């Protein structure tokens, strides 16, 4: 199901997405925990992701790149800060250089993912917490909101194909 709610809060510097899925909570959790499933939806459809590292444990790191239609690669990283399977995931997310490592001085966004059982379905809420107004504005102008909406909209297909 596409995103059901998006809230951009300029005072709290957050961007929130809510999506409901006709799948059990463990199955929705797996789209984060399994890097091959994560690759099938992380990033908009025209910028698919490839995870070269995915240490899905607290303090674990992930390295990935998204490949654009013209072959351009945009590198990113995560540091996982909290895992409470299958209900909560928190991680810092930022841009990386061509070597896959964080760009010095670039402030990360803190992501918080919560999964809740609601009426036999799973509600996933993804909240991005921005470190400052400049980062919030820069990522907004880069199209983060639309990109996340498109990315999250691909999860149903991942859930239906196992």
Characterise this structure.
The protein has helices at residues 25-33, 35-39, 133-141, 144-152, 155-160, and strands spanning 5-9, 14-21, 49-54, 61-67, 73-84, 88-96, 109-118, 121-129. By secondary structure, it is an alpha+beta fold. The protein has one domain: Alpha-D-Glucose-1,6-Bisphosphate, Chain A, domain 4 (2-Layer Sandwich). An 8-stranded antiparallel sheet has the order 1-2-8-7-6-5-4-3. A hairpin with a 4-residue loop joins strand 1 and strand 2. The two termini are 16 Å apart. The mean pLDDT is 96.
Keywords:
single chain, 162 residues, alpha+beta, Alpha-D-Glucose-1,6-Bisphosphate, Chain A, domain 4
Task: Compute the CA-based radius of gyration.
Answer: 15 Å
Q: Count of DSSP helices? A: 5
* Helix amount: 10-25%
Chain oligomer state: single chain
Q: What structural class is derived from the secondary structure elements?
A: alpha+beta
CATH architecture: 2-Layer Sandwich
> Which outline best applies?
globular
What number of domains?
1
User: Which class in CATH terms?
Assistant: Alpha Beta
Question: Would you kindly provide a brief summary of this structure?
Answer:
With about 160 residues, the chain is of the alpha+beta class. It has helices at about 25-35, 35-40, 135-140, 145-150, 155-160, and strands spanning about 5-10, 15-20, 50-55, 60-65, 75-85, 90-95, 110-120, 120-130. It contains 5 helices and 8 strands.
